[in-house]
Amino acid sequence: MTAGFSLLLLSGTLLCGLLLHTVSRRGARPEQPSKRPSFILILADDIGWGDLAANQPGERANNTPHLDLMAQQGMRLTDFHSPASTCSPSRAAILTGRYGLRNGVTHNFAVGSVAGLPLSEVTLAQLLQRAGYYTAMIGKWHLGHNGPYGPTNRGFDYYLGVPYSNDMGCTDMPGYDMPHCVPCSMGTQVYRSVHGGCYSKVGLPLLENSSIVEQPLDLWALTQQYKSAALKIINNARERGQPYLLYIALAHMHVPLAPPLPLDDGRVYAASLREMDSLVGAVKTASDATDRDNTLIWFTGDNGPWEQKCQYAGNVGPFKGKWQTSRGGGSAKRTTWEGGHRVPTVAYWPGKIPANTTSSALLSGMDIFPTLLSLAGLQPPSDRRYDGIDATNVLLHGQQTGREFLCHPNSGAAGKFGDLQAVRAGKHKAFYLTGAAEACGGGRGRQQLHNPPLIFDLESDEGEETPLDSGSPEYQRALDRIAEGREELLWDIATDQSVSTADYTTDQSAAPCCDPRHPVCRCHIKTTESSRKRRLIDRSALMCLWLKSSSTQELTAE
Question: What integer pLDDT is reported at residue 197 of this predicted model?
Answer without folding.
Answer: 65
